[in-house]
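Archive maintenance. Older records in this collection stored only the sequence; we are now back-filling the structure field for every entry so that each record is complete. The fields below show one back-filled record exactly as it appears after the update. Entries are processed alphabetically, and Peptidyl-tRNA hydrolase is next in the queue.

ARCHIVE ENTRY
Title: Peptidyl-tRNA hydrolase
Organism field: Enteractinococcus coprophilus
Length field: 204
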Amino acid sequence: MTTRTVGALDPTTGPVLVVGLGNPGDRYAATRHNIGHMVVNELADRNSERWTTHKAGAAVAEFRLGIGGPKVVLAKPATYMNLSGKPVAALMKFFNVGPENLIVVHDELDVDYDMLRLKRGGGEGGHNGLKSISQAIGTKDYLRVRAGIGRPPGRMAPADYVLRPFSSTEQQTLALHIGRAADAVESLIERGLAITQNQFHQKP
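Back-filled structure field:
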């Protein structure tokens, strides 16, 4: 059975819901804004789980983390980013997940590419997906895995930058960045926020 430490998420209150933010469709699949999707796809692949369509308006995959470990529900809202809140709230209701067991994985302009920052609560930093979730569930007090994508070069507008694919240089290490973010999600579930921050806030 997986060993848990003080401060880890509590599966006795329901499963852990891990939401990867992004936009639906092939047009956006490889863009920076969709790194949340990429991370939950990695977690599904690690556990040999397929995605199914849920009536809440999201693709979901369910598994247990480790032998006898906590139940995890992965989700990719089928809506566009700025409407993510409604399906997240519906999934939380369906699976009986409280905000304490919600992890949202998203792109972060204010964090350098290939770096991670993790926190619970706080502001949304202009991220429309987070704003939608906070409004829909009535609280900002949930965990975030902020996958760094860096600031746009020159005078490029952030809205244009996030909807572009990763550069050829970034793509050389993108799989490592995604894998490390997936590792951080697993660590959050098993070991809690403080330990995970200490490990994953370091330069890889």
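Update note: The CA atoms of residues 116 and 147 lie 5 Å apart. The longest strand covers residues 58-64.
Entry marked complete.
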